[in-house]
Amino acid sequence: MSRCSRRRTPERGVPRVAGAGARDVAAAGAREVAGAGARDVAVIGAGIVGVACAIELLRDGHRVTLIEPGPPGGEQAASYGNGAWLSPSSVVPMSMPGTWRKVPGFLQDPLGPLAIRLAYLPRLLPWLARFVHAGATVARVEATARALRALVGDAPERHRRLAAEAGVPQLIERRGLLYIFPERADFEAEALAWRLRRDNGVRWLELDADELRQQEPELDRRYRFGVLVEAAGNCTDPGAYVAALAAHAVACGATLRQGAATGFRVEGGRLRAVVLHDGEAPCDAAVICAGARSRALARGVGDRVSLETERGYHAVITQPGVEPRHPMMPSDGKMAITATKGGLRVAGQVELAGLDAAPNWQRARILRDHLLRTFPNLPQDLPEDRVKLWMGHRPSTPDGLPVIGRASGCADVVHAYGHGHVGLAAGPITGRLVADLLAGGPTVIDPTPYAPQRFN
Ligand SMILES: Cc1cc2nc3c(=O)[nH]c(=O)nc-3n(C[C@H](O)[C@H](O)[C@H](O)COP(=O)(O)OP(=O)(O)OC[C@H]3O[C@@H](n4cnc5c(N)ncnc54)[C@H](O)[C@@H]3O)c2cc1C
């Protein structure tokens, strides 16, 4: 059963107070701030970021309308099909020193782990130039890692609390995360990435071949070295989790409105409504959480953000008969392998091809085949109906950091998207930060690195 909790004091690592029945507590929260700034807030998009924002805004006593064209947590959202990791170790940006040397390869190998569709290159160039720039020096990636750490450092605990509050504690687990390598030398070849992790408080255990075998008996023998990050968590069903959080928000008083936002009605500098295809949602504040589709909305409130879709894929083998004990990342595949409710999921790949190009399912099959090689005990001749394929859109900025902050053209609108590879993990703290920004007081973390104006 879900429970709404309301805010009493600014959060500083202190768990919020859980209340009794959803309606009573939500009403009490609204009464508490009614004279002191309760607002009608429209939250645009019900992926993990939108639902987390909705819950935190309700906690502060605001009235919330969630605007979403699809089912919350449905297949249209990146939040549905991700690798399901909630990992404090996800602090290493995609763009690293030396990435620029690999760009020709990204263009030539359409099935490589990171590929650029040639036809999309002209539109991608400004983003790509910023992407290469963001990772060009060690100092830059160190700063990015620190800013990512602020978002994901306590992700497992935040999700545990949120899932418990929403009545779905079973969807969040803490099994740790296992990075697997053919040899120790392959781990050492990633020295900068692991230094960034260590410098940002990530601790791990190194496992030799025997220890790795004990941890994961069914793993293919070609992996002879492992690194276990015990503090990491995972979600057993991201789509159901987002749906449950949306239902929790509704139980706490939010209104779910089906539709797609197209812009804003601003009069005299103040927000009056979010405009939808079929009318308006009156409000005096709004949060843009439309994931990879946020760019046009951002422009409508004066910010030209650099946002692309890093298209990713997953394959899920249903009834796999093999259950790894930990979520895993093979170094030779760069993909997330996670046991989920629907089956054994392998998620990954980065394809820069825009929002509208058709999926290239061959990429999902590459993930599937790597999974089959990683666990030889999986049934190798799988009929098509035992493997579910999916493609989705990571909302990605070139510097690997989300866009969170007040809009330049209207202070009543807050941006909250662009979380790239870490949006599931970073959803809850983003929700808190957004609510703090709207409150205008102290914020749970320093918002400076995520400012929308960094692209203007
Ligand atoms: C293959 C893959 C693996 C990943 N693995 C991980 C992982 O292991 N851990 C992790 O933390 N992150 C991971 N990610 C990233 C993570 O999934 C995303 O960063 C995160 O889901 C983004 O959440 P969001 O709410 O911003 O966007 P979304 O989940 O995409 O939600 C946006 C919502 O906005 C709605 N919307 C769009 N336009 C409008 C509009 N005009 N009006 C109203 N609503 C609109 C959409 O329908 C959608 O429901 C992965 C992503 C992929 C693709």
Task: Please tell me how large the radius of gyration is.
Answer: 21 Å
Main sheet: strands, sense, barrel: 6 strands, mixed
Mean pLDDT across the residues is: 92
Low-confidence sequence ranges: 12-35
Question: What is the overall number of helices?
Answer: 14
Bound molecules: flavin-adenine dinucleotide
Percentage of residues in helical conformation = 25-40%
Please indicate the percent range of residues in DSSP E strands (runs of 2 or more).
15-25%
Distance between the termini: 45 Å
For the biggest β-sheet, the strand order reads 12-4-3-16-23-22
Report the principal-axis shape.
Answer: globular
Secondary structure category: alpha/beta
Walkthrough of the structure:
- Mean pLDDT is 92; it is low at 12-35.
- Strands 12-4-3-16-23-22 form a six-stranded mixed beta sheet, covered by helices on one side.
- The chain has 456 residues and is of the alpha/beta class.
- The protein is globular.
- It has helices at residues 22-34, 48-59, 78-81, 99-108, 121-134, 138-152, 155-165, 184-188, 191-199, 209-215, 238-251, 295-300, 361-374, 423-439, and strands at 5-6, 17-18, 40-44, 63-68, 85-86, 114-116, 172-173, 177-181, 205-207, 225-229, 233-235, 255-258, 261-267, 270-276, 279-282, 285-288, 308-317, 328-330, 335-340, 343-352, 387-396, 403-406, 413-417.
- It is built from 14 helices and 23 strands.
- Helix 2 packs parallel to helix 11 (238-251), helix 2 (48-59) packs parallel to helix 14 and helix 7 (155-165) packs across helix 14 (423-439).
Provide a quick synopsis of the model.
The chain is an alpha/beta fold and 456 residues long. It has 14 helices and 23 strands.
